[in-house]
Amino acid sequence: MNTLLFPVILAGGKGERFWPLSRKDRPKQFLSLDGSSRSLLQATADRLIDLGGGEFSATEGNPPAGDWRSQSGSVREASPIGEGFTRMGWDSLWVITSSQIAEGVRQQLPELPSQNLLIESEGRDTAAAVAWTSLEIKKRYGEDAVIGFFPADHWIADQKAFAYTLSAATQLAASTEAIVTLGIKPTFPSTGYGYIEQGEKIGSFNELPAYHVNRFTEKPNRETAETFLSTGRFSWNSGMFVFRAGVVLKELHTHAPEIIEPLEEHGADIYPQLPKKSIDYALMEKTTLAYVLPVEFGWDDLGDWNAIERLLKKEETPNVELATHVGLDTQGAIIYASNPEDVVVTIGLEDVVIVRDRNVTLVVKKDRTQEIKQILKTLQSDPRFTNLL
């Protein structure tokens, strides 16, 4: 099976829990948080540009953009990446983002074709983003086009395993009426992730078993998370999905007509009036076509500052230091300064996050980083501090 996959990057988030480094003019997806020179958005695009491409039939009157050619007109080499993929590169990659950071996306991804960048006039969460992008890809390539949605702020350790997994998910989506989600095999009883319970096994793709989804659950408490892990039937919800355009649009008509019908009738002009719903809530928790591939390729959703420790902590060092730090009796700390000339001095601290960026210094206990969003609401309500957002 040689199947086209259109990867879509969801790049409209704010990344508020990485404040003060992440701000309106520099959201999380524009940051490099793993010690590399590439931003999260650029690293996501790097992973995905080699996953698209393949043989297809364009819908009548809508020839495929690029027609297997680069923008310069030269024919691209079709190179298989596992079963189900052929390399096509930037022509098949799409990005959906907000109007506030669209210019930043263009600067970060200058090779992205302009027609493959969708700009939301107002953020309405992931259900509207999935619906609009799926409609646009269907218009250009037909309802059998296989689409994959990927958040812009994930970290993936093993690119080859990731590509192998995407090939399996594409095969399943192409051959079945399926909305495929990638479930990450848990490595600890996390209370910060949603979970997916697998039901009946429906087959294997690229030797990876696929299961019907029994249910999606919200973030559990510690005891519930430990119970989930003990059963061996639960995966973390990665927020990555693969499906055919026609399948997801049909399911949106059934379960979220308040989103898909206005978009079909009025186009993107209706965007600010759409309800603000996640794709999980609007569709995934309701559809009977959800399938899960429990996978392992080294993954983190980089949700808050504690993710830096998971990525960069070394056993032989007491802290994670991305700053000039002078410390006495300080351990388990995450210390970051955007200006290398700034010096952070600590005495007798444990399990804290210290971030120095421009005119703001944040000090927070590691187990309370989720509450950064509450502080931002306070700052937003006071005109003295709106320039800090």
Report the CATH C-level class of the largest domain: Alpha Beta
| CATH homologous superfamily heading of the largest domain | Spore Coat Polysaccharide Biosynthesis Protein SpsA, Chain A
Are there runs of 5+ residues with pLDDT below 50, and where?
53-87
Please give the CATH architecture of the largest domain.
Alpha-Beta Complex
Helix share bin: 25-40%
Widest β-sheet, arrangement of strands: 6-9-7-8-10
Helix and strand sequence: EHEHEHEEHEEEHEHHHEEHEEEEEEH
The outline comes out as globular
Sheet with most strands: 5 strands, mixed, barrel
What does the average pLDDT come to?
A: 88
Ends apart, CA distance between termini: 48 Å
**How many distinct helices?**
10
Radius of gyration: 22 Å
Summary tags:
17 strands, single chain, globular, four-stranded mixed sheet, Spore Coat Polysaccharide Biosynthesis Protein SpsA, Chain A, 2 domains, 389 residues, alpha/beta
Describe it.
The chain is an alpha/beta fold. The protein has 2 domains: 5-300, Spore Coat Polysaccharide Biosynthesis Protein SpsA, Chain A (Alpha-Beta Complex); 308-388, no CATH class. 26% of the residues lie in helices and 25% in strands. It contains 10 helices and 17 strands. It has helices at 40-48, 102-108, 125-141, 159-175, 222-231, 245-255, 257-266, 279-284, 306-312, 372-380; strands at 5-10, 94-98, 117-120, 146-151, 155-156, 179-184, 195-205, 208-217, 234-244, 290-295, 299-300, 320-322, 324-328, 334-337, 343-347, 352-357, 360-365. The strands form 4 sheets. A 5-stranded mixed β-barrel has the order 6-9-7-8-10. Strand 7 and strand 8 (208-217) form a beta hairpin. Helix 3 crosses helix 6 (245-255). The relative contact order is 0.14. The model is unreliable at 53-87 (pLDDT under 50).
